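Lab channel / #folding
Pinned by the channel admin:
"Please post every new chain as: sequence first, then the structure tokens as a reply. Keep commentary short and put observations after the output so the thread stays searchable."

First post following the new format, from NK:
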Amino acid sequence: METNVKAVELKELWRRCKEEGDERARERLVVAYSPLVKYVAGRMASGLPSHVEEGDLISYGLIGLIGSIERYDLDRDIKFETYAVARIRGAIIDELRSLDWVPRSVRAKARDVEKAHSELENKLGRAPSEEEMADRLGISVEDFRTTLLEIANSSVLALDDLWTVSDPDGGQVSLLDTIHDPNAVDPEEAIDTVELKDRLADAIESLPDRERLVIALYYYETLTLREIGEVLGVTESRVSQLHTKAVLGMRSHLQNAA
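Reply from TO:
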């Protein structure tokens, strides 16, 4: 994610902010990195109910960006963008959770789906199909897909919310970020991220082919749900269902492996 400020100028702003406590420099850093907030908020907004305004997400994310700038250590061997994106996303999710707008009925359905997936995976030794999940829950496949869509439209389910790693500063680093960044948090300072990456990789590998592809396209290729639908030849709603089933399935797989 590019900023509108040259690298040399950014370096000087960071120096003034950290060494001199220059408020003006801090404000300019916030402006320079604000595209990160818009990027994260835009991606999250695409998977949330229509009544959640992207502008609100941006305001929540700015809190995370400001906190990231204040807490970022220039001597740490981790890119600021990697450090900040996880905290921007976390600030947005924390605020959404504090509003508690997810209906209890939807929370209960999500728990039921996770439980059914876990039981079937243990019994079958593989990820269950939609037909098997529907049969376990005592509903039709169509109703099961409707349930997945309800969960998707009422929650902040995301792969990076599956497992977060505490860093030495007391913040949270998304495991998804540590996978991509070779300069991520030193496991000796936090926890053994290699083991966690292996377990996450196993969870992804356990998914059916189509769900695995949705995860890869959404989180690794950064396609939108609509774009994935065009690739797969299905509707955006169908992609949302597959994404939700994949994330709930991965969560139950990780819990079983814990």
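NK: The first strand starts at residue 164 and ends at 166.
TO: also worth noting, The chain is about 70% helix and 0% strand.
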